[in-house]
Target: GTP-binding protein
Amino acid sequence: MARNGSQPPAGAGLGESSRPRRDDDSHRQKILVLGWRKAGKTSCIKTVFQQIPTKEVPFFGVTQKIEKINYDSIVPIQIWDTPSNFELDNLEVPISTFSTVVYVLDMQQDDSYHDSILRFVHLMIRLHLSNPSIKFHMFIHKSEVLSEDYRGENYAEIQRTTSEEIEDFPYKSLASQYPNIDLEDQQTISVIINNLISDVRYSMTSVHDVTLRDAWSRVLQGGMEMLPAVESLLLDFTSHSSADNTFLFDINSGVILATDNRHRTDDLSEQVTEYLSSFLAFRDLYKHIKKRKSSSDGQAQADGVDIKDAVNGERQTANNEGDEDQEEDDEPTNWWDEEDPDEPWMTQSTRLMPNTTLALWQFTPYLALVVLLRTETWQARRGTIEYNLTFLRQGVREILSVV
Ligand SMILES: Nc1nc2c(ncn2[C@@H]2O[C@H](COP(=O)(O)OP(=O)(O)OP(=O)(O)O)[C@@H](O)[C@H]2O)c(=O)[nH]1
Ligand SMILES: [Mg+2]
Model:
């Protein structure tokens, strides 16, 4: 797991390196994170995208000014963490800069969440009128604090109140600010209301469990234009390999980027996410694996223990695919041009129950593939599965190269 022990170098992300490198951040999708004071905005961002341990969450200070957090995944993103007194009018960039807004609402604050919902609805309407393609997510946060019954009740109540407030909003009061939209016309308003109500995605979240990663997974997937193509490749792989489910993970954040969507349930995604984060907790053990070039014959070999050796007691097979991709040019043009085919990628399998096995392959420096399948299929068809994997990997590369 040679490259996983540390954070990827800034600006060396997967998506980013598939296109010309730029010093500015205009190529990043911008995600604006808003919310009431102490709702948990900074915690939602930093525990996932900067891997700050949950125990440090109580010590995040008050956010005083906008902080931009860059993260390189399939799609390079920039998350804007805002102070609670943030006003749209103080934004120094046009609203069209943002692809997505995440509104964090503290679900345990029953006394203030109605005010927070009103604020969300007001912001959402103004953002939507300025940029109708913007996507809205509400993280109903700190959910682990409430009992299960109470949590479900609050969750439903917050969604219901938000929809009601969208319906009841005095749209006419914004008519002078948006002269191009006829906010006096009831039919126009009805269309806006319907769009807004159906567009908000709600997620219950907590920094203490996998729900937060799941919510970010919905946010990131919403911004991936290539998602359907990747999903259909995963589906193809799953059926040709007689597997049950396949998940493509962003390794550093532990966020699912795509799945085959076959018999998938939220519970299953949560279990697989949990598995991956538990497994990656051991990543530091392997960070010293590095490739050693033998001076005599130029052969590369792994130095130290690789994950497969450690977990399964088996040899790591060198990953020889991608040779044909190596171009003569000195200038790397695609991210895989920088990949070393002899790099000891991590791979691991776990028998979860007598009949169920989870297998994991590091797929690129930043992506891991997790496959859930029957143990007997794994034992009988492992060679075929690894063979299919080379095609899946190639397919994903091709999709990413045209993005
Ligand atoms: N129980 C619980 N507390 C949380 C969770 N996430 C954050 N908190 C707590 O909420 C408080 C505020 O968290 P922050 O992330 O600083 O909130 P913020 O919205 O960025 O706050 P400001 O920047 O001051 O507006 C901290 O004391 C955290 O410990 C969670 O999932 N569960
Ligand atoms: Mg903050």
Observations:
- The chain has two domains: 14-221, 226-402.
- The two ends are 27 Å apart (CA to CA).
